[in-house]
């Protein structure tokens, strides 16, 4: 059981390190298994190449999400989305200024995490849609069977303290990603919120990037 007095920054580092190892274990296992079969089956080399490519895509995504902020060129967000664990069964769509404009560093890292959160909020096939302008407001929408944001996301977006408290969910994937995304948004001054009160569709996640520097 985690100590109630554990430093939240240390807890965040521990959780992200555990999550990093978990997310890399699948492509690494696939690569290891394929290499072990190469001597007996030449076709295993193709499987190894595919696993190596998948590992590279996953590393690029996680580095952009949890490493130091770095700017993205036009189309960079879509390229990174190919590294999502469920990239084979979801579609990521970019519209407006996001489709053909570069992203400054802080905004880029925030949106990469938002895409990861959106993807984890789709338990089955679905679509992640980002619309807006990198110099204004961005809306992140999800659609699909059983699509839904993690519990307490609205509270995490409303106050940093609730986002830190959200880490108590431990390695529960969507809860951890929700807390990280909310904390990054608060730090960037992006005024994160869910647009509640609409129709029966999943409410969009909104970020105001006008005050976000870098």
Walk me through this protein's architecture:
Helices cover 49% and strands 12% of the residues. The chain has 7 helices and 5 strands, in the order αααβαββαααββ. The chain has helices at residues 8-37, 44-66, 76-81, 105-120, 153-158, 160-166, 173-188; strands at 90-94, 126-132, 137-144, 193-194, 205-208. The longest helix has 30 residues, at 8-37. The chain is globular. It starts with 7 loop residues before the first helix and ends in a 6-residue tail after the last strand.
What's this, in brief?
The chain is of the alpha+beta class and 214 residues long. It contains seven helices and five strands.
SS content category: alpha+beta
The SSE order reads HHHEHEEHHHEE
In the predicted model, the low-confidence regions spanning at least 5 consecutive residues are none
- What percent strand? 5-15%
Radius of gyration: 18 Å
Number of helices: 7
Main beta-sheet annotation: 5 strands, mixed
The percentage helix is 40-55%
Strand order within the widest beta sheet:
1-2-3-5-4
**Counted beta strands:** 5
Spatial gap, N to C terminus: 39 Å
Mean pLDDT: 87
Instruction: State the shape.
Output: globular
Secondary-structure topology with pairs:
Elements: H1 8-37, H2 44-66, H3 76-81, E1 90-94, H4 105-120, E2 126-132, E3 137-144, H5 153-158, H6 160-166, H7 173-188, E4 193-194, E5 205-208
Parallel strand pairs: 1-2
Antiparallel strand pairs: 2-3, 3-5, 4-5
């Amino acid at each position: 059981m985690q100590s109630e007095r554990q430093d939240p920054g240390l807890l965040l580092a521990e959780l992200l390190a555990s999550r990093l190892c978990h997310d890399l274990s699948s492509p690494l296992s696939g690569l290891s298994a394929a290499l072990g079969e190469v001597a007996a089956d030449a076709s295993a080399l193709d499987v190894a190449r595919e696993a190596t490519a998948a590992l590279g895509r996953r590393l690029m995504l996680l580095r952009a999400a949890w490493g130091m902020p770095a700017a993205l060129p036009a189309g960079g967000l879509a390229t990174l989305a190919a590294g999502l664990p469920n990239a084979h069964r979801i579609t990521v769509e970019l519209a407006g200024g996001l489709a053909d404009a570069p992203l400054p560093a802080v905004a880029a890292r925030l949106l990469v995490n938002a895409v990861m959160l959106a993807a984890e909020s789709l338990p089955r096939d679905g679509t992640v849609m980002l619309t807006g302008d990198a110099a204004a407001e961005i809306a992140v929408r999800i659609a699909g069977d059983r699509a839904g944001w993690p519990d307490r996301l609205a509270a995490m977006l409303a106050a940093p303290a609730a986002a830190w408290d959200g880490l108590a969910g431990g390695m529960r994937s969507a809860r951890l990603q929700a807390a990280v995304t909310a904390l990054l948004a608060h730090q960037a001054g992006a005024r994160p919120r869910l647009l509640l009160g609409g129709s029966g569709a999943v409410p969009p996640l909104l970020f105001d990037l006008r005050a976000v520097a870098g």
